[in-house]
Amino acid sequence: MKVVCYKDKILKAINSVVKGVASKTTMPILEGILIQTNDNEIKLTTYDLEIGIEYVIECEVKEQGSTVVNAIMFSEIIRKLPDTEISISVNANNLLEIECEGSLYKLATMNPEEFPELPKIEVENGIEVEQINLKNMIKKTIFAVSMEESRPIFTGCLFEIENNKLNLVAVDGFRLALRSLFLNKPTQNFSAVIPGKTLNEVNKILNEVVSQVEQSEMLHSKVGEAINTGFDIGIRAICPDYLESQVINLKDNFINNGLKEGINKSIEDAVDYGKSVLGILTGKFESISQAQNAIKSGGVIDNVSDLIDDIVDNLKKSDVIDKKLASTIKKEKNTIIKNVENNIENTFSEQINNVEKLDKYINNWKEDYKNQDFNSMKKEYKKMEKVVESLIPIENIINEFNTIKNLQNLISANGNNFNLTQDELELAQKLF
Fold this sequence. Notes:
Layout: E1 2-6, H1 7-17, E2 32-38, E3 41-47, E4 52-58, E5 60-63, E6 66-70, H2 71-80, E7 85-90, E8 95-100, E9 103-110, H3 131-139, E10 156-162, E11 165-171, E12 176-182, E13 190-195, H4 196-238, H5 244-256, H6 259-278, H7 288-297, H8 300-317, H9 323-331, H10 333-370, H11 374-389, H12 395-413, H13 422-430
Antiparallel strand pairs: 1-5, 1-7, 2-3, 2-6, 3-4, 6-9, 7-8, 8-9, 10-11, 10-13, 11-12
Helix pairs in contact: 1-2, 3-4, 4-6, 4-10, 6-7, 6-8, 8-9, 8-10, 10-11, 10-12, 11-12, 12-13
């Protein structure tokens, strides 16, 4: 077996499947990741006899084959390698060789034939649900799943489809949580109980996918708004004698000739290129500064500048604007660009300030939590909520906020009583 792939791709796959690795087992093979090749892709599989996870990625397959390698060791090596191409192969001595920029690591392997096969699932009924909807349904029901193994049926969540409606129900003998969602396509009625442990892992995977989408959408929205406002201010500056209606009309002409779509494309291209410059080929930004550097490195200002030139030329050719106005806009274009640049800078400065505010409110909340001052906790939590609404989602600080949110809700549901069980405390950290 020999494959070549980028670090970010295989690390993302490892991070997803490692949740299915057995932690306490008498079978060493269950502590490993099964790696299998198929044409121009590899499949990573883990299975602890309860949860099985498969992840397929595209890569360059030079030699077909399969092997099993210890998940923790494999993960740690890949994690510490540079953000570039990695060669993974099995040598004649059945050792896994990992090569990257002159470094060579060797790991013992296990027989892939001994790896237990995941149960084959006969799909009789299937449904399609938006990831964000499923994530929210799980999050708002799983807290009511019982932790007591003496009542196994209560340790799972009921998935029920009835009259083309999906119901998720959790109950522990004291609490009941129910969430429903109407489905777009007709589906046969059926029901099944899914273990809470499995749903927790599904939720983590969904969080990874959804948070990446949410971050991208928020970043595009914030930068797009900054560019749009900067353009508006710039037009008013170079056309000071224009009436409000004339400014609006000119801007509408730009929008109708591709300004909005062009801005979105400029941001998308800038983010993609900026990520490659920073070595983030896939995945999320880990800080506001990182996102800001990606936008700068990605050349969004140059993209917008070229976009303005193209639209002005098209408007002049179509006789929508005269030569004098076209010449003025091109001549004074730097005024528009400067305003756009300043607006983007101000947007990220505001984001960084909001992160600092959120960090301050979190620390205040923690102090109030230590002193069991619930009223003060509520005040700090409301401040946090307001800041988070306008913040580009950065995983670490958002996860911390979500943990606080869960603790706040658990204490409130407990009659403002701080005496939470260990299971409830652990659950608070899992529900984001």
